[in-house]
Amino acid sequence: MLAVCLVRVIRLGWGGGVATYSYGISSPLKHVDYFGLTVHMCTRPMRGRGFSWIPHDFVCATNPVTGKPECGGHGPPGLGGALWSDGTDSNETFSEDQCTATEQGPGNCEEKCVIWYIKQPRPTYSLGVPGVRNCWDWAEDVIRVCKKRCKDDPKSGDNLWAD
Question: How far apart are CA 8 and CA 3, in angstroms?
Answer without folding.
Answer: 8
